[in-house]
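Record pair follows.
FIRST:
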Amino acid sequence: MTRSEVIRQYEGNDVVLDTAKFAPLVIEGNPEVHHDPRGSWLTIQLAPEAAQRLEELTRSHMNQRIAVVVGDKILSAPTVRSVIQDGKARVTPCENDACDTLLRQLGK
């Protein structure tokens, strides 16, 4: 492991995270949780600098999983399906109430 890597648990497994590839979630506006019969998701509008960093991260991790981490806990690990260019992130799926937990953590 390098100095920028840390190990966290997710779904009962050890996951190695590279903190050098971190994109902070600096929120602009109010995040929203959405629920329908297909599942749950969270929509977030990022501040301009955070939006640029997320664009770079999603561009370099297309069709790969990225971790949504709050504090020391991985709340979700969605697969990047498209480059997020406008700072509007949609975290899906949110399993086991992860969206509601993330929303509460972002509100602190």
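SECOND:
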Amino acid sequence: MDSAVLDDAGKFGRLVREHGGRPCCYWSKRRRNRRPHKKLFRCTGLLAGCRRTYDAAEIATRHDVSVYIPNWMTGVETKLNAPVERFGSKLADTGYEAFVVRDSTVPPWQEAGLFNADNGTLIIPESVGTASYFVTEEERLGVHPMLRLFPPTEVLSQYRPARILVGHGEGILSDADRALQHALSGSRGKTPKLYGKTLKSFLPL
């Protein structure tokens, strides 16, 4: 039975099997019919990658596991009615190294990322995504709309991932490094186009 880590406290419910870092299942309150099959793996913990807890306590209780929170992150533990374990630069024995994506008061934003150098998997809960409201027509991966003018380039450009798992949208499982660099370098320049696209989506046809 493969062990797994549920990232971002159940927000996007992606379980990452520790076998090549490939996403193998999705699970959230909105998608009950896609619960992880017990024969595939067991859930060994939940990762709070940002300050929003969503259904973390419920999932942790159901699987009798802890919610893992970075040592530096504040305002999360008190929201959880579930066991909590703090961690530093390494997430237990998963092979993932943790790093600070953003820790700011304006805008109020705390986010941790994970990277596994052995299989090239990069996990980013908030700052980048593939959902329609993150990307323009030319992008496979885009920076969060709130961070478009101030993308986390200095932090994320250090990594050369083989795949990227995100909190908003499907993961990037091929040519991920190029998608990431393209998203970061074009973030500011493509901001008007993204905002225009988003505004248009709210207008009546």
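COMMENT: The first strand starts at residue 2 and ends at 6.
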